[in-house]
Records
---
Amino acid sequence: MALQDGDRINLEKASVMLIDANPQGLDILTQMFAGFGARTPHRCETVKEAQGMLRKVDVDLIVIEADLPGDMDGYDFVRWLRRAGMPQNTFTSVILVSGHTRAQNVARARDCGSNFIIVKPISPRILLQRVTWVAKESRQFVECDAYIGPDRRFKNAGPPPGVKPRRHDDIRTKLGAATAPNMDQDEIDNLMMPTRVSL
Amino acid sequence: MTAVKFSPPKNYLAKSMRQPGGTTVRGALKDAKQNLDMIRAECIAEIDAKLGAINEQFGHAHEKPDDDALDEFYRLSNGIVGIAGTFEMTELGDAAFSLCELIDRLKPAEQWDWPAVEIHLSGLRLLRRATPGAPENQAMLTGLRALAMRAR
């Protein structure tokens, strides 16, 4: 859903951690979040610094550059975060930021457990939109041997044609062509998230 | 098959953002843009420093550099991708992105494609001085992308 200029956002109380080895990259993120109203984001230039801080403070949102120098890059960091056994920070929302992604890292990006990946260049509008998407996140958290993180399926359209269903909630019947016009987003929201109304 | 555990999302960010107060999206974007303007000069100087380092270290790399040097080449170029577009130098960022793609493709290759690298370096130098949005910039970017995509 597009971000409207009149919508309200509040990041004053949010605990935000920004990680980027490039000082200018870190400054760009810091200045954007300062504009969004985040009071004192935790700035980290190394993964080691971030790991130390996460053992002491609870964080609501982490924004991390994917291509970090050294033994642990952004993808490894998110994998570590999801498995480190910290009671709250295990589930912290993570936005990975990436310029060019090497071919060998595409699958790692998908499987590391981040909530979103933003491709650079970042504009304030794109970043703010992704932050609000993450705040509205309703995907379940998945934990298994190979993956820990938000469900990688953004929508459940069932198995591809010709493939038998594997999950109990896979759609088992052929849906066929639509017979009515598409519903608008408000109608869909009302179906998914009914709210109590006091008259 | 291993056990898979599904649990409802624990969205701490949503809880923080539901607090009363805050600002409008319009105000937040305006403030963010003003803040970025304060670091514009410093970031553009960093782009120039990275361009300088690329030209100095790899401007005459007729032979394939070793893996560590290629990683440094890639990181310098990717650094430009990260900064340029935020400060309306989108075309320069796109050229740097194409150079990253080229380096990534050439790294495992046996043959080093110096002409393709050299053309990218020239493209970066030209786009740094070019008028943003000029039609010839797009033509140049199309050529750079085609060069990067054919590398193997």
---
Amino acid sequence: MAVTLRYRLMWGLNRAAIRLLFDVRASGLERWPAPPFQLVVNHHNGFDPLLVLAVVPIEPRITWFGPKEADFSRGFKNRVMAFFGGIIPYNPEKTTLTSAVRAVRRVFEADGVLGIFAEGRIGFRETELLGFEEGAAAFAVASRIPVVPCAIVGSTNLWFRRRVEIRFGEPIRTDAVRGRDARTELDARIRAAIAALLPAEEPRLPRRRPLAFLTDLLNGADDVARRDTR
Amino acid sequence: MLPLIWTLFAVLAVGGFLMIAAYWLDVQERPDLTARARIAWSAAVLLFPVSIPAYAFAGGPGWPQLLRLASLIPALALVLFAGFVLGVFT
């Protein structure tokens, strides 16, 4: 995917802002295969894509699949996302899978990276993964490109200078995957690979958490309500 | 010199607005504050050049050094603004 001047500017601004707000660190970047490939990431917070972008190189450019929005011209967050670019919105009620598949194919043809939050919604425990949405690795299998598992650790509760780790696992090849059973097994392998990157225990939260409002700053109202009713 | 001071003011003004927002939201999110203290600190936003540093240094929010220093930004922006109004920078 082309790295435009606008993307370069937004990438730099995001990197500066996120690294000022949080102590964000990456491990396993050296495991990245040559593009194209698909990143499968766990999801704990609306900040997650920005946290990943703050630690990865500007190229290959990451395109994120699946914000469940149809109209990005409304709302501050949506407008910023649309300006940043690099998103493939997919709302099953309003957009067709065909157009999304076409957009994904363009990303891979341009040697880009597709990022996907396989759980489809945010989880509230650092040590657990929610169930994956169907076909989390379907795009990678269809294009026979590798999948890189990625775990974001520490974004469930955010505060100023909170340590957040972005851990990348070994790439998983998909070129030999044929048939439904093999795809199911691949989903399980990806899930196990991400789970292996997660911490064994829930972190103990400090009593003082400066600017703790950052936790819900980019979370959707439905996500906050879901957490508060648990 | 004047363009430099204007640039500095613009940066401090934006930073000042962000600090006021950060202060306000931090007060609302602190679980250890009593309702009375929360209302008092919230109302004190009207005196933001004084109340934000007071909160940062003596209000017990546990802010790290960087944020404590940043709490002075609104006051600095206001000082520069007063300088413009009084014609100190010509």
